[in-house]
Model the fold of this input.
Amino acid sequence: MDKATIRDVEVQGKRVFVRVDFNVPIEDGRVVDDGRIRAALPTIEYLIRGGARLILASHLGRPKGRVDERYRLDPVARRLRELLGRPVHKVDAVVGPEVEQAVAGMGPGDVLLLENVRFEPGEEKNDPALARAWAGLADLYVNDAFGAAHRAHASTAGLAQFLPAVAGLLMERELTVLARALSHPEHPFAAVLGGAKVSDKIGVVARLLEKVDRLLIGGGMANTFLAARGYRMGSSSVEEDRLETARETLRAAEGRGTALLLPVDLVIADRFSADAQRRTVRVEAGVPEGWMALDIGPETVERFRAMLADAHTVIWNGPMGVFEMEPFAAGTLAVAQAMAGVKGTTIVGGGDSAAAVTKMGLAERMTHVSTGGGASLEFLEGRVLPGVAALLDREAVQR
Ligand code: ADP
Ligand code: MG
Done:
C-alpha cells in the first residue's frame, strides 16, 4: 500500500485521534454484532502497546447533526471494555471543554471514547472548524474507519488537513486485500453479484467485467437482467429504467468472452413473506403474474457452485435472494458454502452479504469479509475514497 500506516510513525507518548467504524447494530442497549469493534482491535491494541493516548471517535446511525439518545455510544463503550479487558473512558460530548479535560487527564495507554460524531452538524458537512477543534486535542490522526472512508466528513477526511494522517491496520488490510484482488488476481477470477438493485451496483458490474473470467449474477438484480433477456418476471422487482443498461452489460460480456451467468431457475412466491406459497420455476416458463422471484433456484445453485469450485479468486457482493427470510436463504447459503470451499482468495463485500456470511457462521472461512459496505463498493468501482486520499503517502513519512 502506498499510504502511510501507524507502523510508519512514532506513536509513543503521542495523543492519537483514531477514527474507527463502530457503527454496529444495537438492540435494547446491547451490541448485537460486534464484528466492527473486533475488527478495530488490532489498531487499538497496537497503539496501547506503543504507549499512545487514544482518542477514539465513531459515528453510529444517522442522528442528523443533533443529539439523539438512541444513538449514544455507551453500549459500544461497554462492549469495547469487555473486548479490551481494560478501562475505556466514555465522554458524553463530541468536542469542547468536557473532551479537552478528559484528554488532559490521560496517560500513555489510556483509551477515551468520544460521543457519536454525527451529533455535531459539522461532521457530515466536513466543517473545518470542527476538524480543527479535534486536531487541537491530538498529535496524530489515524483513520481505521474503512466503512466510512467513502465519506468526506470532518472525522474521516477533514482532520487530515490539520494533523499528520496515517492508516490504521484494518484500513490497511481492507485496502491491500481488495487492491491485490483487482490488480493481481489469481485466475480463474469469479465475481458473484446480487442484492437488491442493478442501479446500486452498475459501476461495480462494469468494472468487474473488465477483470473477471466469470460473472455470476443473482438476487434482485438478476430480475432486471432476466427481463432484459425477454423473460416474464411477473411481480418481481424489475428496474424498467435499467433494462438498456442490462442489455449493454450482456453485450459487453459477450464481446469480451466473459462467462456471464444468470439464473436458469428461480424460487418464486405469491407474496413478499416468509409464509408465502413457494414454487420453483425455470426462467423460460416465466414468473406468473402476482408472483415474484425471491431466490435463485436449485439448478442455478449447481451451476454457480461449479463455476466457483475451481476459481482461485472470488469476490462476492450482494445476497442471492431475500436471505433474511429462511425459505429464501438457500441460494445465499449455497454461495457462501461454495466460497468457503474455494482454495484461493475469497472476499465478501457489502453490508448485507457480510451479515449473511456472519449469520451463517462462515465468516472465518473467507479470506476477508469487508467491514465496509458502501466503501467496498466504491473501491471496487475504482473510485477514490476521500478518507484514503486524505492520508499521507508512505514516502512522505520519515521515521
Ligand atoms: P449488500 O449490502 O451486500 O451490498 P444489497 O444491499 O445490495 O447487498 O442487497 C441486499 C438486499 O437485497 C437484501 O435485503 C435482500 O433481501 C435483497 N434481495 C436479494 N434478492 C432479492 C430479490 N430477488 N428480491 C427482492 N430483494 C432481494
Ligand atoms: Mg446493503
Remarks:
- Residues 194-196, 200, 219-220, 237, 293-294, 317-319, 321-322, 324, 350-353, 373 surround adenosine-5'-diphosphate (ligand 1) (CB under 6 Å).
